């Protein structure tokens, strides 16, 4: 942490130049389609995880089961015609706990359940020491998914601020210090993903807004170290590597300047319910990078029609140029069924295709 210098927080190439390099490297169409990361946690996944935890399924059997799920997820995306794929995260029971279990400096309790919202409960990890990464955490699964397809597969990481926000922190050091330790661990992971062939890496930060102090007096200091942590984690990426981030349902007005300062190449945000208000807020901030306003509300079992997706994108195009707009769901697909996801992906891809046709006149 003491060795971090300001240059470590900079990509080194302006966003507009990165966009051109990434367009050449990825070869994506206008209005590219993608998903946020997770796919349904099926009964088969849960059974394999439980059997592995109790020892009735060995490591080889568990990995074979997860590979089968990754193959199914990649095949489903290819069948639908999605442009930038994900591996589906079948091996992850929780987007924070999964990483905490693979980082030194954390313990992951077997119990200690707390309510997140509604009937959803989680077991937050506990930070007990300095955080570091003893070994790569995600590269094996991203590389496996990429071996199955010629389409780009996103490396998927949970950001340093979110890991910290959804864990019990240390009380003997500032959160900003822990965030920087997490950022350095994730920086190594980004570098390893890139070295393994990943051309797109997504670092999710839904916790950025959640950790914002209630008192206005503390917000500037918090946002400064939170933004620095994200940038430290991601600035190691080459200019041709596209860095995405994702944020879930929240009031973003108070953190728009911070979102801009993250310097991510693409941000995906909830917009299916908010009627694209977030795009107006981004425009007011002068945000000039890629945006994926969610066109599919995944917190409902209802699947959007092709017309709805196309109309949503048409309204977004009134606010954004076509070369910066992405088509994606609001959030991960973990809680949806396989059937709902198949129908939703079909609508997403067909809706984006229709919007492209309308652009072409």
Automatic annotation (TrEMBL):
Keyword Transmembrane attached: no
Domain annotation Cobalamin-independent methionine synthase MetE C-terminal/archaeal: ranges: 31-352
Signal sequence region: none
Pfam families registered for this protein in UniProt: Meth_synt_2
Keyword entries, A-Z: Metal-binding, Methyltransferase, Transferase, Zinc
Highest taxon of the lineage: Bacteria
One BP term from GO: methylation
Catalytic class of the enzyme: transferase
GO MF entries: 5-methyltetrahydropteroyltriglutamate-homocysteine S-methyltransferase activity; zinc ion binding
EC numbers on record: 2.1.1.14
Reported cofactor(s): Zn(2+)
InterPro entries, per database record: Met_Synth_C/arc (IPR002629), UROD/MetE-like_sf (IPR038071)
The protein's name in its UniProt record: 5-methyltetrahydropteroyltriglutamate--homocysteine S-methyltransferase
